[in-house]
Design goal:
The structure is a single chain. The chain is built from five helices and five strands, in the order βαααβββαβα. With 137 residues, the chain is an alpha+beta fold. A five-stranded mixed sheet has the order 1-2-3-4-5, sandwiched between helices. Strand 3 and strand 4 form a beta hairpin.
Length: 137
């Protein structure tokens, strides 16, 4: 029995993304948040580089990013010890890659020492209260 030579999806941690990689990741985000296209620019991606934003992605067998997460490093010194963590933001997956976000977040937890997630959810429509009852309970 021989091993399959078929390409497979894989996780990628991109610690120093090129501008083109930020642009490719942004295309995934536009499938969820089309308004971001107007906000993104080469200058924004350069700012991400200056802030040392990292990308994590689930890349499909076709080589195209299916799910992405952006992470920005942070640290603080307490009692002479430096504590380091990452803020995770803009986690998005293509509509045809249902469930990929959960798989990517699980992988991210293996790669990073500590993460704090923040972001936008399209799960809750814009109501006057705009609250998640599970969080507010």
């Amino acid at each position: 029995m021989s091993a399959s030579a078929e390409p497979r999806s894989r996780f990628r941690r991109i610690e120093a993304p090129a501008l083109e990689e930020f642009a490719e990741a942004a295309e995934v985000c536009y499938t969820r948040w089309p308004y971001m296209r107007e906000l993104d620019s080469e200058a924004r991606f350069r700012a991400f580089q200056q802030l040392h934003v990292e990308l994590c992605a689930l890349v499909g067998a076709n080589g195209v990013m299916q799910c992405v997460g952006y992470l920005v490093p942070a640290s603080i010194e307490v009692a002479g010890e430096t504590l380091t963590w990452y803020y995770m933001f803009q986690v998005a997956s293509r509509p045809e890659a249902a469930g990929a976000g959960s798989l990517l977040e699980r992988q991210i937890m293996k790669w990073y020492p500590a993460i704090f997630g923040m972001g936008i959810s399209t799960l809750w429509p814009q109501h006057s209260h705009n609250r998640n009852p599970a969080v507010c309970a």
